[in-house]
């Protein structure tokens, strides 16, 4: 491009700003749809009919990114506070647990840490995305959702939900994206292992690094619809036992939202788009998901790209219970219309509080608008008639629940409450099971079960209770320490059938992280992590992980076994490299306890 007197909008252009003592200062502007990536700046000068060309070196390299501060850019976001959070903030949270017992852990996105930009650009190069598409946020975000997982084209992270993490690191041990991306860059192979919040954390880092506003979002009671019916089907046999039907409900699932215009769609579908790097189902033959307009999900417009049917089912499918009778005939028992998609969570702008996004994805449960959206979506599924309601004569009310805030090491106490609203006695056969679960809704180990016949007097109440001690359940738990209580009941007098559940997370203790709250750039300080073993067993395979953007590179600290009730402290020296508000994050893993985290905020001047 020639160096002119003034810059031209909407295209590559250059203009001379000043010239003095053999030096020229030139301004350059790029078009809003410029290809994202590295550019080499080469200067040609002409003098006395001769042309001189500068050499191409790394010192003359510039990187063009998306620019959400520019109105003409696809990622333009007219809100400084949100730009500060969704582009510039290197610290955030990942929410996990269950909708009634929400947990959160700090996450180091670290998009401005050394080498992170290099690995993000390498991902685009490796993806083989067309050059002309690298200025399109829709296509870039879709390709990033593919490249963050290793299912196709040698992406960043290998998923593992087996509970066996030999040859890699447990997903609960990661504190952030930086160590993962650097390891991928240095070893040039996928990193082991990730689960949904890890995929989402890395995706947030990559998108923010490329200039696309992004956030991690947790959906509780997240459906995985395997047959595109837009319903989640649960089956039980005549003995009141569950039958696997293929569909599942994850206790939580973490994906991303990215902010962009959607010029490929009718007006009204721009803004936040769901994108998901966790490899669940293929889309166009590869493991990717999105971008899917949140407004399309809310209104049931599941025919719009990309993957809107799948995302809609995750947040607003109806949960349908079926009784499998003899000869495999099905009897529809009931439909739970508010069971899926609850407490959708992300970090609030400018604070460490939780911000609820549920109303962005769906209208209030049970409202006319919400039911219209569901009917619209289901009409585009493979079972359009499944939605029709079933009317049953039910006069016994059931409720199953566990005690609130049960910590690992405490007893689990469960109650099935029953209320007879009729003027006749009711004989009820009950069956309760307790299972340790993977957070994806897959059973891990049976903890116990019980059956009991109960007679409820007219207009009376009865309950069935069961209790499990740590000795009975501790060896059964897996990563997230989630327990599912499933209660099934049959009213002999009326043939009423009930199926209900309570999924809960056994809570873990916190780490206590202490450090000087005020630090000076370049001066060494000491941080301390304290942990007390709350269990009656010795913890082995103990590891602490600590990191903080601008303070400390990710580091693993192995520790000797920790006895019951023992308190241990580990210290780490660090030297601040950047000024501003920073966060030190730590996590703890062992053979019996995981998902133990802590953090402390500091200010570097």
From TrEMBL:
Sequence ranges assigned to domain Transglutaminase-like in this UniProt record: 188-279
Cofactor(s) needed for function: Ca(2+)
GO molecular function list: metal ion binding; protein-glutamine gamma-glutamyltransferase activity
Chemical reaction(s) catalysed: L-glutaminyl-[protein] + L-lysyl-[protein] = [protein]-L-lysyl-N(6)-5-L-glutamyl-[protein] + NH4(+)
The keyword rRNA-binding is assigned to this record: no
Cofactor annotation comment: Binds 1 Ca(2+) ion per subunit.
Family label: Belongs to the transglutaminase superfamily. Transglutaminase family.
Name of this chain's protein: protein-glutamine gamma-glutamyltransferase
């Amino acid at each position: 491009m020639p160096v002119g007197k003034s810059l031209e909008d909407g295209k590559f252009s250059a203009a001379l700003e000043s010239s003095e003592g053999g030096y020229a200062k030139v301004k350059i502007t790029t078009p809003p749809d410029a290809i994202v990536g590295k550019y080499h700046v080469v200067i040609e000068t002409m003098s006395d009919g001769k042309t001189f060309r500068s050499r191409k070196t790394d010192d003359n390299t510039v990187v063009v990114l998306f620019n959400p501060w520019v109105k003409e850019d696809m990622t333009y976001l007219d809100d400084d506070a949100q730009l500060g959070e969704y582009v510039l903030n290197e610290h955030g949270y990942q929410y996990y647990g269950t909708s009634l017992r929400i947990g959160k852990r700090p996450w180091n996105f670290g998009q401005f840490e050394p080498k992170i930009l290099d690995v993000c650009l390498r991902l685009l190069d490796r993806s083989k995305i067309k050059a002309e598409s690298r200025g399109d946020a829709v296509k870039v975000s879709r390709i990033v959702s593919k490249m963050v997982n290793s299912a196709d084209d040698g992406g960043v992270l290998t998923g593992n939900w087996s509970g066996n993490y030999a040859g890699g690191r447990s997903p609960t041990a990661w504190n952030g994206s930086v160590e993962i991306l650097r390891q991928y860059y240095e070893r040039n192979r996928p990193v082991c292992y990730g689960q949904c919040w890890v995929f989402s954390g890395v995706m947030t880092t990559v998108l923010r690094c490329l200039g696309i506003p992004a956030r991690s979002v947790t959906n509780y009671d997240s459906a995985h619809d395997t047959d595109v019916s837009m319903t989640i089907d649960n089956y039980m046999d005549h003995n009141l036992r569950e039958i696997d039907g293929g569909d599942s409900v994850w206790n939580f699932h973490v994906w991303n939202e990215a902010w962009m215009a959607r010029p490929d769609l009718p007006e009204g579908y721009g803004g936040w788009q769901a994108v998901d790097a966790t490899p669940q189902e293929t889309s166009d033959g590869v493991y990717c998901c999105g971008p899917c307009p949140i407004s399309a999900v809310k209104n049931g417009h599941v025919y719009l790209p990309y993957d809107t049917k799948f995302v809609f089912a995750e947040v607003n499918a109806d949960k349908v219970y079926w009784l499998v009778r003899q000869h495999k005939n099905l009897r529809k028992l009931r439909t739970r219309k508010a069971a899926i998609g609850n407490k959708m969570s992300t970090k609030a702008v400018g604070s460490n509080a939780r911000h609820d996004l549920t109303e962005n994805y769906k209208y209030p449960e049970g409202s006319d608008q919400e039911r219209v959206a569901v009917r619209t979506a289901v009409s585009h599924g493979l079972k359009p008639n499944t939605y029709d309601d079933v009317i049953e004569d039910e006069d016994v009310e059931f409720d199953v629940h566990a005690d609130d805030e049960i910590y690992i090491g405490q007893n689990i106490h469960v109650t099935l409450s029953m209320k007879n609203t009729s003027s006749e006695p009711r004989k009820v056969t009950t069956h309760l099971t307790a299972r340790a679960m993977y957070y994806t809704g897959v059973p891990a180990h049976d903890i116990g079960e019980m059956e009991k016949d109960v007679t409820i007097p007219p207009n009376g109440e009865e309950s069935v209770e069961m209790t499990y001690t740590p000795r009975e359940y501790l060896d059964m738990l897996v990563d997230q320490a989630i327990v599912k209580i499933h209660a099934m009941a049959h009213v002999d007098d009326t043939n009423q059938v009930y199926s209900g559940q309570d999924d809960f997370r056994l809570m873990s203790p916190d780490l206590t992280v202490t450090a000087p709250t005020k630090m000076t750039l370049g001066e060494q300080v000491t941080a301390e992590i304290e942990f007390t073993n709350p269990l009656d067993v010795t913890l082995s395979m103990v590891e602490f992980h600590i990191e903080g953007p601008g303070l400390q590179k990710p580091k693993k600290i192995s520790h000797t076994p920790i006895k019951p009730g023992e308190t241990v402290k580990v210290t780490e020296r660090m030297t601040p490299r950047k000024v501003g508000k920073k966060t030190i994050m730590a996590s703890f893993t062992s053979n019996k306890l995981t998902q133990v985290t802590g953090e402390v905020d500091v200010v570097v001047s």
